[in-house]
Amino acid sequence: WDPRPCEVRNLKVGKDGTLTWSPLACGSAGYDVIRGNLADLTEGVDEIAAGPVTCIESNSADTTATDPDTTPLPAGTVWFYLVRGAPYGGYGQGTGGKPVVPSAGGCL
Questions:
Q1: What is the C-alpha separation between 16 and 13, in angstroms, rounded?
Q2: Using an 8 Å Cβ cutoff, are 107 and 57 in contact?
Q3: Strands, E assignment, the chain
């Protein structure tokens, strides 16, 4: 799978909760960053349902963000993070090119 030029690449999460990524090759007016629970991801017929998510940063020009929630996770819980560039829309694609779509929450 080869991401489209307007999808965020090289997303990294540091131990301190700092996220970094490469600027979009096509440019961006800003970035939205969301966090969700990996256990909530499910594959549907037409999309990958991300479940309810939390907006970490909305429409920021920065290519970094920090998750403000430093509460230790319960055993077996894993967060995922997704970044999208505005105005290009989606949070990426999963299996077979299906878009990843949050069911609730997210950035406005």
A1: 8
A2: yes
A3: 9-13, 18-22, 30-37, 42-43, 48-60, 64-66, 79-86, 100-105
Per-residue pLDDT of 12-49, as tens digits, reads 999 888 999 998 878 778 899 999 999 999 998 899 99
Tokens of 20: 């970094």
Q: How far apart are CA 58 and CA 76, in angstroms?
A: 28
Closest to 6 measured CA to CA, from 22, 21, 24: 24
Q: Which of 48, 54, 61 is CA-nearest to residue 92?
A: 48
Specify whether the CB–CB gap between 101 and 42 falls below 8 A: no
Look up residue 25 and give its two tokens.
């090759």
Determine how many CB atoms are found less than 10 A away from the CB of residue 36: 25
Percent of the chain with pLDDT over 90: 53
Cα–Cα nearest to 90, from 67, 65, 107, 68:
107
Q: What's CA 33's distance to the chain center, in Å?
A: 5
